[in-house]
Amino acid sequence: MEKRVMTNSKRRRGLVAASALLGGVLVLSACSGGGDGASGGGNSDTPQAKVDEAAAEKTSEAQIEITPKDGSTNASINNSATVTVSKGTLTDVKMTTSDGTAVSGQISADKKSWKPSAQLERATTYRVTATATDSEGREAHENASFTTVSPANSFIGTFTPDDGTTVGVGMPVSINFDKAITNKAAVQKGITVSTTSGQEIACHWFNANRMDCRPEEYWKEGATVTLKLALDGVEGAEGVYGVQQKTVTFKIGRNQVSYVDAQTKQMKVTQDGKVIRTIPISAGSPENKTYEGQMVISEKFKETRMNGATVGFTDDDGEGEYDIKDVPHAMRLTTSGTFIHGNYWGAKSIFGSVNTSHGCVGLSDTKGADDPNTPGAWFYDNSMIGDVVVVQNTGDKTVAPDNGLNGWNMNWSDWKAGSAI
């Protein structure tokens, strides 16, 4: 009996020892503990606590912020990748594309911010690494990666006229969007057009992709017009955002309006309402009448090719009824193919006497567009983009307001009714 008791006593002592050993293993495996005594987890005088405290004291106070946040998608191409720091100064910022191409940028004079030097590209992943120091010279580091908005999820507007140009009094601001706009009011609110002449300007949506803006009457001579696009981040359609931030200015030149009379076969060129030259013309034949109405010169070509097949004039074999590869001094009046241009192939006698064209307005000219003394050359040299050509007495319908830059053929109340705001 006594021997069995002693055996159990030894067994209990062995279990206690094993338990103590396991407890020691658990304590040694922990980073920090909440116990007292030998474990030392809550003792601020232990070596580990002192190390942690020293590390905290050495941490930089500089706080770096990178926008957009790490992992962002659909980021702006205009306002992204801004790096700022508080309680310190920036010492180094690097930005690269996912393939390692460096993006140039500059730290501000006060070393508190950084931004790229140029607009970012769409559908591109960028990586940013930034370093800053605090007043004690201790470094802080921050990294971020983001992806800019993709073409599928963004829209841009192609506008005319170009920045810094001088145009005629009939030139509207015309914007064509590469995506259909369903939230027209939001987009229109992000676009402003103003003029130093003080004229009221209204914008008109022809469809989901095009908006033109103009005053009630032609622009005032010498005025400066400003177009501001503040479309960055504007949702034009579900999940489709604008990316443009741009200011464009253009100047209005002298007031030149030309009047083509298909009955008299004469064109009167006026400046400030005064006739400066009368030019014989040949308009569309009775079978191919020229549109009537106010038309704006939208393009100029010293020489260009005109193929009837491109505008529906074909013969029985499907070939163009005409194909002239060197039409001189051509100026576009409609998107559908109406031009006012030089004509060297017709007899000189037709100008001022008979209408023979397929719908264009022809002026006497020479092959090669190298004679400055012809009526075609003179009119070309004395015209600019945005000048108005008013065509009358052809017997055809008035040109559609959206066929070219010809919104002047819509009355003011109807024009304003096409605004989304």
From TrEMBL:
Q: Which Pfam families match?
A: Big_10, YkuD
- Keyword terms, alphabetized: Acyltransferase, Cell shape, Cell wall biogenesis/degradation, Peptidoglycan synthesis, Signal, Transferase
Pathway(s) where this gene product acts: Cell wall biogenesis; peptidoglycan biosynthesis
InterPro entries per UniProt: Big_10, LD-transpeptidase, LD_TPept_cat_dom, Transpep_catalytic_dom
Signal peptide bounds? 1-30
Q: Which residues form the active site?
A: H341, C360
Query: Is the keyword Acyltransferase assigned to this protein?
Result: yes
Quote the protein name from its UniProt record. Answer: Ig-like domain-containing protein
The scientific name of the source species is Streptomyces glaucus
Starting at the broadest rank, the lineage of the source organism is: Bacteria, Bacillati, Actinomycetota, Actinomycetes, Kitasatosporales
